[in-house]
Amino acid sequence: MSPLPATIPALVRTKVRAAVRRPSRTTPQEAESRTLVLRLCSLLLQYPDAELAAARPVLTATVEALPPSPAAEHLAAYTAWCTEQEPEALERHYVEMFDLRRKSSLYLTYYLHGDTRRRGMALLTLAQRYRAAGWDTDGSELPDHLPVVLEFAALGGPRAGEAPLRQHRRGLELIQRALTDADSPYRHVLAALLTLLPPATEADLQAVAELAAQGPPNEDVGLDPYGSGEFAPPDAFVPPEQASPTLVPPMSTPPHPEGSR
């Protein structure tokens, strides 16, 4: 969205920007398709264990049955690649992209707050949001893990459910760029998700470019639980430290060491 003229009162400019970012009203059929796309993104971004690998024909058929849309095209591009891969190759690629690359971590609050108390508070806020909506996660993943956030978005709807996705729009953009730079087919899953969100603003794109160029500051502060240590700048970019690959199914994921898979 291009900047609004300075002659427009600040209150009006704020309301216009809010209206642009607010999800538009959809028909029941569009809402159902949107929910399905979110759930598919959640599934496809989970660790490709044997169960998920065996479900590839069903997932592919489900994607093919989606109404035509940019999101459906991106998901079809991913499933076409996925169905041709050996299970072991899928596992290795997933670990390389999401466990070993800091700029494509799936833990969203890192992109805003780093591994700090500010991030801990963000995790607590997410967990409280889930509980307030009546959704009880199994606790096997941190609440900012993207597949978890996507499942909540599918359950909660475009306004309240998708609010965490809109809040972390810049982090999602950075993940998609990192996957594109790595030529990973997972870039299509992120691209499908981004088609559902409000377009990135010039400020968003500039912030993402700066994060991609500067990289994370060296900060080593633990979470206890979900928070201890010093505050980081609001836009600090500190993805998790590189971790050893942990090949564990998404449906029964392991206890998460503090801030890393």
UniProtKB/TrEMBL annotation:
Domain of life: Bacteria
InterPro entries (UniProt xref): DMSO/NO3_reduct_chaperone, NO3_reductase_chaperone_NarJ, TorD-like_sf
Keywords of this entry: Nitrate assimilation
Annotated stretches, region: Disordered: 215-261
Composition bias type Pro residues, residue spans: 247-261
Protein's UniProt name: Nitrate reductase molybdenum cofactor assembly chaperone
Organism: Streptomyces cinnabarinus
Lineage: Bacteria, Bacillati, Actinomycetota, Actinomycetes, Kitasatosporales
